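2024-03-11 09:14:02 INFO receiving multi-entity request
2024-03-11 09:14:02 INFO entity count = two
2024-03-11 09:14:03 INFO echoing inputs for audit
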Amino acid sequence: MATTITVNQTERSLISSEETPLLWVLRDELKLTGTKYGCGVAQCGACTVMLDGQPVRSCQVAIGDIAGSDVTTIEAVSGVEADAVRQAWVEMDVVQCGFCQSGQVVQAIGLLELNPEPTDGDIDTYMGGNVCRCATYVRVRKAIHRAAEILAA
Amino acid sequence: MNTSTSRRNFLKGAAATGAVLMVGVTPKGVLAAGHAGLASLTPFVKIDEAGTVTAVLKHFDMGQGASTGLATLIAEELGISLDEIEIEFAPHNPQVYNNLFFGPVQGTGGSTAIANSFMQYRQAGAAAREMIKAAAANAWGVAASELAIVDGVVTGAGQSAPMAEFVAAAADLAVPEDPSLTDPKDFRLIGNPTTHRKDNAPKITGQAQYAMDVHLDGQVVAVIKRPPKFGATVVSFDASAAEGMPGYKGAAALPTGGGVVVYADTTWQAFQAREELTVEWDFTNAETRSSDQIRDDMLAMVNSEPEFVARADEGTDAAMAGAAQVIEKEFYFPYLAHASMEVLNCTIRPDEDGGVTLFDGCQVPTLSAGALAQVLQMPMEKVRVETLWAGGSFGRRATSEVDYNVEAGLAFLLDGGQRPVKLMWSREDDTTGGYYRPAAAHKVRVGLDANGRIVAWQHQLATPSIFKGTFFAATQVVDGVDRSSVEGVPDTLYDIPKMTMGVSDFQSPITVAWLRSVGHNHTGYVMETMMDLAAEAAGVDPLEYRLSYLSGEGEERARMREAFQLAADTAGWGTPLPDGHARGIAGMFCFNTAVAQVAEVSKDEDGYVQIEKFSAGVDVGLAVNPDVVEAQVQGGIGFALGFIMRDGIGFDEGEVIQSNFHDYEPLRVWDIKDIEVAIVPSAAPPSGIAEPPVPPAGPALANAIAALGTRVTMLPMAENGVDFV
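2024-03-11 09:21:47 INFO inference complete, emitting structure
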């Protein structure tokens, strides 16, 4: 029986088997390739998406477990926090290779939705699972503070 | 036929439709321009009749910012803003898109992208500007010298019109042989710290296309089960347990013996099917040693007669014998995986003409096309390369053998060559897949006189050679010495009066390759540790001590001195620190760039070390994009610290121990609080910045930690007595 989930506000009936990780359904079946494969074991955060409004590692979510849920990917994530994060990311020129940045951006949006004025410690805790091999971390931190400023304005 | 006009007529004839001005170079390197549709013209810049300007990038972008840099050079000369220029990656054409430092090879590496393109891309932009101005001058009946392009608008002599209006006419004009370049004092974009990267928007919206994002109609995904030990080969395999699994399409042994390829419709299905595969391996020629044995073997080599001599100053041994004090240290650096965020992958598509297209975050298209041409038995011209954004590389996408391209070629052949094959690696494949930064052991003896001045330096190195056995050996191996093994030692800028250096090649089937800054990432650690120890023994401030060995002649020494001074000033070197804090300094000159860094660390009551801050001073010549330079320095320091602190590829009877980011742990956001970068103002031609920030980071950290009591010479630090917060 096909699993049905809502992805970026569109209901999708999936052909992938129900134990297939959401990550691979997004990438290979739905061709939403903005969500990246980095490790497959929830160690890097490159595959982070919003599941019912919470950032999750899509490599660890079998689609059979989330039937009827609402998934938002980097391609469609929106709202004041998303706008602030993207503006700050551009102002601070955070990206380098960019492969982790879909996950960084979604995770940062999740942080600011939860905590609009995060401290350095809050950022370390919440963003610590998102690996960037280019080591853009100093700018990630500055951009999150900047996004908080934009939100407060 | 009038030969003087035949080329122009040919150009006109070729431009049947769609006025597009294209400016590039001929295979002889001469500026050339013309209309679109001209197969022989491969441009650096294209301007269509709507006025859209596109920079065609001969270098790939793995995050180092070459795309922004090349676009900046064109936009600067053309008189447009960086927002007004589009970018696209060039196809493979080693005659015109070659790296000017590599000969007839198109490729990116050695921190050369901007340095080799600086004049070439500016000239192309300037030629386009002059041609558009000339076309406007003709239309208006004024002198071109009265006109300028400002923000894409041709202005002057009381006239003003968008550049787009003159594109068609400009494409009919002869290209200026030597277009005037913008005076550096008039630069708007080059050297401007407020410009932004060209790749921000696509990379924060999920739109940027990486090789992994390629999905072609009818494609099959291939994954490979590789030998568990380097040097092992496939004897036989059994894939019967995968039969009937969803999407499973079959399996085949690679003719190289290097693994068994498994095909499926999707990546996940391919990974799942591979789990069901059983393979019998031949371990006859496999590496079977464990990490401790490998390290001990290399350390034994640096305590034996070396195979090769990299430097042999006469009288070194006698000077050592007369030294008042000798400092002796052994060092060990483990193998390292590059571990780019985007694991290795690429796709090969069959084309109608019997050729193929390779979709890849391709670092050296000429290597890739050449290797695939061999595998697929076709002329190199039939192997097209479509370069996409690369999710990191750090050198891994540019091995001499381009191993993953070859694997994809073999998988494509074994599949019958009739449909696209996408080769995917898993993170586990990527971690265990070899082509590592070679492990290295050093033994150094530094002899000092009674005043603490160096009288002799004896250096022994054992490491696997990267270049031997590759076609680069002809230029990179001299008298048996692989230049990439020793670089940074015999050629040090420090005025060491007498030095000997011996090298021995460590032999193992473990594959090795360059990793960001190549040999410098271990030699720099050794040199800058020994200089610190010498300064300590001399009772002299480590900055002052280093500067005293850089006081000699030469521009490189002058640049290194400036970088040191700037790093020190930025860090407040010599100013008081809170209790439990300490600073360390280190620097290196490589890839024609000087970088010095100061690390500040703290140790808490329980002995845990926190990296508080790094301060860097860099001389890259003219910084085309200062913000990109800053980002590369920040990133290079972070990349280096990750492996210096806690990474190493280890072996258990030949099998790689690590598999993923849980046990090959990269730097994380909490590991470092801040990195401040200062750039030496310079009008000299730009050098490179992706690699040079890497070597000083480790020794700067080590020297800071040593100031708190622990001198680390065996890496990684976390396994050798340092506990990080």
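2024-03-11 09:21:48 INFO post-check: Chain A has two domains: 3-72, 80-152.
2024-03-11 09:21:48 INFO post-check: Chain A touches chain B through 58 residues (CB under 8 Å).
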